[in-house]
Amino acid sequence: MADDQTPALAAVRREETRVEERSALFRKELGLTDLVLTQIVFVVGTIWVGTAAKLGANQLFFWLLAILTFYLPLAAVVIHLNRLMPLEGGLYQWAKLAFNDFVGFMVAWDLWIFAILVMSGIGLTVATNLSYALGPGARWMAENKWFITAFSCGLVGTLVGISTRGLSVGKWVHNAGGVLLLLTFLMLVGLPFVSVLSGKIRSFHPFAFAVPSFSLSNPELFTKNLNIFSKLALGALTGFEYVAILAGECKTPARNIGRSVIIAAPIIALMFILGTASVLAFVRPDEVDLIGPIAQVLSRGFGRFGVVAANVVSIAILALIGRLVALMSIYLTANGRLPMVAGWDDLLPPWFTRLHPRYKTPVNSIVLVGATALALGLLGIAGVGMQEANQLLDNAAGIFYASTYVVLFAIPLFAARRIGLRAPVWLRVAAASAALVSLLYIALTIVPIVRVGSRLGFAAKLIGVALVFNLVGAALFGAGRRRQRVQNGGSDVPRVDIEPGTA
């Protein structure tokens, strides 16, 4: 075909071959079942059924709107890009090949920073949940800084060891987390049906539908509804692209990653919708516990049957801790690969590309990710004045992640021909829809809808945090470019970047 003769597409194909050759060393551990369970663990955040339940009867409308305008487009774009380029590094490779090295590097950098910020609180979160699961006598665990510090070091050290050992072990941690999460949601979703049949509650309407007001005559309510919609989309319904980072360690990745998305997508959607309806069957919207909605519902629901509520809550919390540990293991495993693939392109030193002699995992990158997340988490535990900083970093993390989605959805819109992607009109429309939702999320994160001391000050701080982190990423890229020039004997010609217009 004519497209196969363009300089840009030829360069892309050569780069794909180079990445595949580097990936040949990896053990192909992830099969379809592993990928489906990993998708479920990564996408389904348990707090979102509580957040959506605050909407009352409007919850189904917002879930469906987020699914149609963001979730399904995300699934479609990931399936198409992974089928075309099933490469270790996932979105990093897609962005690099579709645009240039700088865009690819900054996408990987933002993904890396986002994951570090999410992982940094794992020790405190798990220790706190564990203290609730073990009962009142264990509450000291959540308040003792020395215990949390030791617990955090032990937990992160264990996860680093598992990731270094490779996916032959890590996949069982991820699978166990997926099974525990599915069983927990099975209890949550089944409880209202059993309660109706036994006469404990009068009725249950899981698909009750009501349309909220989006009238511009009430700008405050309009903005609030937009914000809720964007949070459900970019907060709850994200993550399908993450597994693609491990494409070089999957069995037949071009087929299985896409199939895992197709299988997991409807399961995840039903988990969110039916899970939210179950919360509303037992708890009024104004009473929903946003931190532990599932434990709250299981406690109330099983309490009607005379089951000791404390035991049910403890079991639920322990299951959700298992899911959380599996989630952090996925973050650590995937984000250990991002510095490695950037090192393959000489954008980071070769130190990041060194593999464990026996397990063939990027051990240096994995240790760096774990140590950075642990250090940031311990700073948060020790610092008395860290609360505002943590809040800013949490909000910035959302911006970093949403920015990578803007790039993801820009690929079928602006670079399809360059990478040889046949992007039908419906896929472009879907990508445009999801890109607009991502931009809306960024805008509503920067402009707070809750009361703050100064909206302008809040926005300035948040933009400043995001800008500083991205400037650091750009500086690292500049250092990598200089390293490339030295290795190329002074040449400044990038490997994949093609002059504009040649595609």
Mean pLDDT: 88
Estimate what percentage of residues fall within beta strands.
Answer: under 5%
Q: How far is it from the N-terminal to the C-terminal residue, by CA? A: 14 Å
CATH class: Mainly Alpha
Number of domains: 1
Structural class by helix and strand composition: mainly alpha
Number of helices: 18
Q: Would you identify the CATH H-level superfamily?
A: Amino acid/polyamine transporter I
Radius of gyration: 23 Å
Do you know the CATH architecture?
A: Up-down Bundle
Biggest β-sheet strands, sense, barrel: none
The unreliable regions are: 497-503
Describe the protein.
The structure is a single chain. The protein is mainly α and 503 residues long. The protein has one domain (2-349, 357-487): Amino acid/polyamine transporter I (Up-down Bundle), CATH 1.20.1740. It is 71% helix and 0% strand. The protein has 18 helices and no strands. Helix 4 (59-84) packs antiparallel against helix 11. The longest helix is centred in the middle third of the chain and has 36 residues, at 309-344. It is globular. It starts with 6 loop residues before the first helix and ends in a 16-residue tail after the last helix. Residues 497-503 have low confidence and may be disordered.
